[in-house]
Amino acid sequence: MNDTVPWRDRLLGGFKRTSEKLGENLTGLFTKATLDADTLDEIEEALIASDLGPSTAARVRERLEGERFERGLDVMAVREIVAQEIAKILAPVAIPLEVIAFPRPQVILVIGVNGSGKTTTIAKLAHLLTEQDYQVMLVAGDTFRAAAIGQLKVWADRVGVPIIMGKEGGDAAGLVFEGVKKGTEIGTDVLIVDTAGRLQNKAGLMDELAKIRRVLGRLNPEAPHNVVLVLDATTGQNALNQIEIFKEMAGVTGLVMTKLDGTARGGVLVAAAEKFGLPIHAIGIGETIDDLRPFDPQEVARAIAGVAPLKERTA
User: Fold this and answer.
1) Could you identify which of 31, 233, 234, 306 might form a hypothetical disulfide with 19, taking C-beta atoms 3.0 to 4.6 angstroms apart as the criterion?
2) What does the pLDDT look like over 126-152, one tens digit per residue?
3) Which residues make Cβ contacts (< 8 Å) with residue 306, sequence separation at least 6?
């Protein structure tokens, strides 16, 4: 999708596979005039199969039990209730990333497994913040992969922001130290730090993150101000396992979910919000530099459920 397509239309397109999967899972469950326990069980199972998570499915079931369907039950009535319940879950966690640190720079550690879209997300986040007139600098702290360093350099040039980088195998904490010092000197508002995503070696990753934190603590006791976990929506329920692990290892303060347009598992966004309650700063629904944005919980809920946006319905 190009940047001339309105964000709402991108949302609808991005969650199309997810809403279609929900529709497929609900098809054939509305042959009876009234709701009975068996039908409610089947609807609940259909919602879980749509990656919305057991807690969300239970909430919808409870709503359905309390509703009176004057014209009989149909799939759109259920989709509408699903949208309303999803919106309630997403509303408290749809929190944009705010630059409020003083003294500057605000240090954002970006973590995530290799392949999650972490490096690209950093570039998109930098673009989003520069659009808001913040001065941004990147630190190529994933020193275990030369490709990650090179890729981040390409993105930094494209976005038009400075980057601190070293050689493959270099000391990530040393680069972060250099980044904070340089950023303080030139008046950088935000320092975004890429980190290694070697989840298969948890001990090594924890040691490295702890070292980065110690270095930051010497320069600014408040840093890092944010620890943002990038999640790949195409991994479905595995994304929840990653939150659990990284929350324990790195003290995750917020989430970004990417690749929502490439999967029918977009319901995991809701499951993550329901289970962990962490701020979800932005979502990615495309491959262009400006496709990472904060989101409106109502619009996303209706896109996932496959019902028309509220403004269109009331127009």
Assistant:
1) 306
2) 999 999 999 999 999 998 888 889 999
3) 19, 20, 22, 23, 79
pLDDT tens digits, 71-94 = 566 788 889 999 999 999 999 999
Bridge partner residues of 231 (DSSP) = 257
Residue recorded with tokens 């940047």: 3
> In sequence order, what DSSP letters do the residues of the chain get, joined into one string?
--TTS-HHHHHHHHTHHHHHHHHHHHTT---SSS--HHHHHHHHHHHHHTTS-HHHHHHHHHHHHH---TT---HHHHHHHHHHHHHHHHTTTB-PPP---SSSPEEEEEE--TTSSHHHHHHHHHHHHHHTT--EEEE---TT-HHHHHHHHHHHHHHT--EE---TT--HHHHHHHHHHHHHHHT-SEEEEE----TTSHHHHHHHHHHHHHHHHHH-TT--SEEEEEEEGGGTTHHHHHHHHHHHHH---EEEEE-GGG-S-TTHHHHHHHHH---EEEEE-SSSTT-EE---HHHHHHHHHT---HHHHH-
Residue 69: predicted pLDDT: 65
pLDDT at 3: 55
Burial 95-123, CB ≥16 within 10 A → b, else e: eebebebeebbbbbbbbbbbebbbbbbbb
pLDDT at 267 (0 to 100): 94
The predicted pLDDT at position 257 comes to 96
Residues of the chain under the 50 pLDDT cut: 1-2, 313-315
Rg (CA), the chain: 21
